[in-house]
Amino acid sequence: MHAVLPVSLALLSPRSPALASTPAWTASPRIARPAVMLAAPRDDSPSSLFSPESWTEKGFDGVQRLPAACRAAEATTAEAEHLALAFLSQDADSVVARTLSKAGSSAASLKRQLEDFSARQPKVKGAAPEQPSVGASLLALVRGANNERAALGDEFLSGEHVLIALAEEPRCGRAALRAEGLDAAKLRTAADEVRGGRKISSKDPEAAYEALEKYSRDLTAEAKAGRLDPVIGRDDEVRRAMTVLSRRTKNNPILLGEPGVGKTAIAEGLAQRIAAGDVPESLRGRRLLALDMGALVAGAKYRGEFEERLKASVLREVTEADGAIILFIDEIHTVVGAGKADGAMDAGNLLKPALARGQLRCIGATARRGGSEGAASPSGPPLCAGATTLDEYRQHIEKDAALERRFQQAAVFVAQPTVEATTGILRGLKERCEQQPPPAASH
Known about the structure:
Layout: E1 4-8, H1 17-20, H2 24-27, H3 46-49, H4 57-64, H5 66-72, E2 77-78, H6 80-88, H7 95-102, H8 107-119, E3 133-135, H9 136-152, H10 159-166, H11 173-179, H12 184-195, H13 211-215, E4 216-218, H14 219-224, H15 235-245, E5 254-257, H16 263-276, E6 287-291, H17 293-297, H18 305-320, E7 325-330, H19 347-356, E8 361-367, H20 391-397, H21 401-406, E9 411-413, H22 419-435
Parallel strand pairs: 2-3, 5-8, 5-9, 6-7, 7-8
Antiparallel strand pairs: 1-3, 4-6
Helix pairs in contact: 4-6, 5-6, 6-8, 6-9, 7-12, 9-10, 10-12, 15-16, 18-19
């Protein structure tokens, strides 16, 4: 028999008084969070350890899944394996799943190990209680996680602390993780890689982890894997972009052209050249990442959340790469005003310092409106002549003088291909398109 502590998990229920009084700032979007956030557990009592103020948002989500994990196991007492299974039931993007993946295992594999152990434990006859009591192994696991949090200098408990503490848990965790070839040291290293060396100082630190993987596409990796279509007839534009990127200053090219002429294809052509090593020495080994501004802005409800994603996550990873990463921002005019709320900065203002210091190399693409007569030449500045107007560029970039200077004398004009060039492009793509299997007829 295992010792059972007279503590209920009722405080984890969404209906419990502990969670009933939701702070006003969680109900209203795009308003400031409270200036002072409660720190990690003041003591290791169960009421403090299981309090929502002690955990990150994703961490407490895992804790709230604990009663359901107990009911699935038909257990009256919540033990260490149930908390581990609760965290392993989170989505594939959770910090626990990513840490296990980085360490060479998987959440699914560890989950099977713990489910097998749980299946061998005594079951309750009849319906399991709605709120099981807290077992000694569970409390020991959470206390171990809190010790790990303190050792790492974090302010809040999170899933990776539970996972690392599980490696020293004698009831089931140590054996299950050893069967996966993992121990506390390996998990600590993997968690540090996922976190990028950051400390947990906010309730939502997971949004900053591996930000480039979440908010961008690696065009260079796709080129190496052969997933990009060949770029034909755009050698001049690709060479011009490489020339601008190779400068010491003013090295952020901006692709100007009408909608649909193939501005994104220039970036893909550059990625293919980098993958093949057919670039100047200054660009060899670089990664070209296409930033997804839509994903970056999506879900940023609170003031400062978007800025934290872009500056503290994306730009920090790019800066720490020390020139190894080149960002491609399609429809770059959208960064002016992106994520902006009252009292907040937009993406353009966040990009300017990194661009000015040369810490960030960026390729932008935006559309122009009107005919091509009198348009700027590929080597000319982003200006127009005659009746031609540069719609989005003039509307959004040019009116921001500081941002416009970052792209000054770096325009790459992408013209509509001629009939002869279009024929050549189609001939070049013919073989690849023919390899695509035809759609099956439905009966």
